[in-house]
Amino acid sequence: MPEGDSIYRVATQLDQALAGHVLTVSDFRVPAHATADLRGRQVLGTVPRGKHLLTRFEGGVTLHTHLRMDGRWQTFRPGERWRSGPAFQIRAILGTEHGTAVGYRLPVVQLLRSDQEYRVVGHLGPDLLGPDWDAAEARRRLLADPRRPVGEALLDQRTLAGIGNVYANELPFLAGVTPWLPVGELPDPDDLLDGARHLLDANKLRPGHVTTGDPRPGSQHWVYGRGRRPCRRCGTPIRTGRHDRDRTAYWCPRCQRGPGPTA
Question: Do the bridges between strand 72-76 and strand 247-251 make them parallel or antiparallel, or are there none, so unpaired?
């Protein structure tokens, strides 16, 4: 599932293709909205909220989409050939005279009133890339259950909006703790939150989720995806385990203090 910085980048691409222009194409290929027609409405813009996308139109209508694991938005210039996937995978098409956005394999395509957006994103915690970031509220939610493992808390979108499995592994490494350390034992929760916001902000307009400062392929991460390979700091083989929702966890047993995965 894409991280919040990837969703921010998708929102930026949709904005560049559609915002400020009037829809000439409106095609929703999902049963719930197959007859909906937004042609003639101006696209006000697309905003990311954690891992959710909210595309707003004049008249108080919002399109809510979520990519989950396989969904993707692709934008095209006028007259450009679509080369991103077969037609049967298309779930939504939004077009103007200036560009077209095509949504492939979107698992969530939902039209709702703009004043009802809270129904789909109101449960989320503070958005790490949002203009209304609230560090105090993020800290409160992170520490609400002191016994909860760090990795599990980071992956819970009700705690923070925008973190996926890449950062749920990289952030504990940078904090020097394992993903299974209880959040109540974090040496500096504020430092963890500041690091999360810094990393997502640094990567929001580039691909790769770079956490090491080295964008070269194979060098972007400290531990994520590096099972059995030597730790970049100490040379100890990176171990793997499981944490929240059976996702793969990576950690260095020498650089990171705390418990390992439970049996």
Answer: unpaired
| Residue 60: how many other CB atoms lie within 10 Å | 12
Distance CA 257, CA 157 (A): 25
| Fold classified for 4-121 | N-terminal domain of MutM-like DNA repair proteins (3.20.190)
pLDDT at 250 over 90: yes
- Residues serving a catalytic function are 2-3, 51, 247
Predicted TM-score (pTM) of this structure: 0.95
Give, in order, the Cα–Cα distances in Å from 58 to each of 3, 65, 69, 136, 145. 29, 18, 30, 34, 42
CATH number of this structure's domain 135-251, picked from the four choices 2.30.29.30, 1.10.8.50, 3.30.70.3400, 1.10.12.10: 1.10.8.50
